[in-house]
Amino acid sequence: RRTVDGSTTLRLGMSSSSGQLVHLGSSYFGTDVKYVSVVPAEQEGSGAFLVFVSEATPESRDQSVGVVRSAREFSELHAALRGRILCAALPDLPTRPVALLEGSDGGEALEFAYSRALQAYLAELVAHEDVSGAEELSTFTGRSFKLSAPPPPRTNVLSPPARPASREAPTLVRLGSGKVGAGSPGEGSGKEGGGKATKVTLSWCDESGDHSVELPVLHPNSGLGNPVIDVRSLNAKTGFFTHDPGFTSTSSCESAISFIDGAKGLLMHRGYPIEQLASSCSFLEVAFLLIEGELPTAPQLRRFEAEVHKNWMVHEKLLSFFGGFKSDAHPMAIMVSVVGALSAFYPDSVNIHDAAQRRLSAIRMVAKMPTIAAIAYKTSIGEPVVYPSNALPFAANFLHMMFATPAEPYKVDPVHAEALEMILLLHADHEQNASTSTVRIASSSQANPFACIAAGIASLWGPAHGGANEAVLRMLGEIGTVERIPAFIAKAKDKADPFRLMGFGHRVYKNFDPRAKLMQKVCHSVFAGLNLEAHPDLQLAQQLEKIALEDEYFVKRSLYPNVDFYSGIVLRALGIPTDMFTVLFAVARTSGWLAQWNESFSDPQQRISRPRQLYSGVARREFVPLAQRGGAEASPRSAEAAPAAAVPSPAFAGAGVVVEPGR
Fold first, then answer.
1. Which of 103, 165, 484, 544 has the fewest CB atoms inside 10 Å of its own CB, making it the most exposed?
2. Rounded mean pLDDT of 544-550?
3. Residue 585 has what pLDDT?
4. Residue of 176, 164, 130, 154 whose CA lies nearest to 52
């Protein structure tokens, strides 16, 4: 047996040598046990499945009826039930027509793998108390879940299928035990009312009277995170939209990749706490986890590493692309341009509807990002490009490409390589932040993967997002010396003073950032091998950290050093230039972006992103011809006309920008 979602819902399947299900009796399961089976309906044509749901007794199964359902009908059922509860995610539909795979072992395996996924999905619906009795589910399966009610008549009934002995057995599901959302508001959370909210009522009044509408509440099936109010039907029912600048109270998608609980200082990737991953995994292991969904086995990890090594190199013609940038170009500008241009060099992996091409694009991006970043750095300092080495691990290879030269051998410091590996791992993904949301929005338009990642890099480039660790170094430069720290601490405590300590506290983590604790250890190990007397800025950072961790003002307000503080000073200790900090961030976050990008294709609710707005402009007005708009008398334009003086544009008032006519 195995636990499905942390609740008491059980799935159990045992098969005999003949492949038939062995009934275990009602003494263990009780009477509310269901037999669920989904197998390919080959006689009905490609893409169809035989669906059977009945009581788990031999007599009942002998009398059960089945129905043929297509993948599209599974999607329609999923959409119909989503308004009631956040159920299991519908498995990703095969990206190639099954007809193309007929007659091949790979096609048959794909079809049965998909049918097993659909079977597991249907089993969760059958077990879930909030949807098991739904009319849509009863109609879909061709029978009612009420034991006393006979199955509804169907015209396309079939005999129960015989699943081949080599295939996974059908699923047994115990009804009434599939609870979700444990710990959500209203259930063990100390809020009034008790129980789990399933709907909310919105009330308003206008000149025509009082009105109200009920909106469903969706709960996470893992019990982690806040429930959300489903407002998709709000406008149709009320004429209203919601207003949430920055989307700070809006769930924009359903995702199973990363989870953050800021109050508890929790960060998980695919259910694994970041502390466990950081202590036991390499960066590529975590990248595999994010992209593929599970931790790799040893053979899988070796194959994945081999695929990355194979794709480290960039197209030789791409190197000339770097030569077109000025020597003082910011590396992030180069990254945005070069990554966006990759689609022109690798057109064989831009078909987003082909799962194999999507995976190839993901491998290429993970592999080529450190190479592109290192080339951008070498270009900016005028040194020759250093090619990647398959003999080195991921982080060590990046340091090799950054700092090696043809003139002399370069040996990577293992402490530095380990520190960089940790920085990459801790920045691999972080839920729906600004750059990740940007990637998903670009993906919703079905843009190619390289364009989507380039969009994420552009968003990350913003100082409010990816520039936090750069801001730490600028702050240290402003403080200058250890002796000046008390004065700047006083400035930070003064609300009237604009100075703020950068790298302390976090918008999401209210008590502590779990990544910061891990980076603190790395920071101290790197410092142990340095002569801090030769690095006054690092000495300054170390003293500032000590004061912040002990000062009551900072402790009381949870203004602890965050991951940006430690990663900034570690990168400085490794010799990474400040303008490369955000580039390193992009290299790390690419694996998370790709996981989110790929996940969006399995979401049956995926639609092109189209936010609404609260219009604040002027009302409708009539156009006024140029000659009637006042000012100097209009005259015909000619080459001899004197250029007008630069005038401020009202749209840029206060921004220090002027618009010069004719430019």
1. 103
2. 83
3. 94
4. 154
How many other β-carbons are positioned within 10 Å of the β-carbon of residue 606?
Answer: 16
DSSP per residue, 571-597: HHHTT--GGGHHHHHHHHHHHHHHHHH
pLDDT of residue 633: 57
pLDDT at residue 192 above 50? no
Of 535, 564, 579, 603, the active-site residue reads: 564
Identify whether the C-beta of residue 36 lies closer than 8 Å to the C-beta of residue 128: no
- Does the active-site annotation cover 23? no
d(C-alpha 615, C-alpha 618), whole Å = 9
Select from 451, 465, 456 the least CA-distant residue to 593: 456
In this structure, is the dihedral angle defined by the CA atoms of residues 554, 589, 385 and 376, taken in order, positive or negative?
negative
Residue 204: strand pairing partners: 211
Q: Do residues 593 and 456 make contact, with C-beta atoms less than 8 angstroms apart?
A: yes
654 pLDDT tier (thresholds 50, 70, 90): low
The DSSP 8-state label assigned to residue 462 in this structure reads S
pLDDT, tens digit (0-9, with 9 covering 90-100), for 478-501? 888 888 988 998 888 888 888 888
* Per annotation, catalytic residue among 429, 506, 579, 603: 506
- The answer to which of 135-149, 206-220, 262-276, 296-310 has the lowest mean pLDDT is 135-149
pLDDT at residue 17, rounded to an integer: 36
The number of helix segments (H) and strand segments (E) in the chain equals 23, 14
- Establish whether 506 is a catalytic residue: yes
HSE of 46, CA atoms in CB hemisphere, 13 A: 13
DSSP string, 33-94: EEEEEEEE-GGG-TTEEEEEEEESSHHHHHH--EEEEEHHHHHHHHHHHTTT---PPPPPPP
3-state class (DSSP) for residue 366:
helix
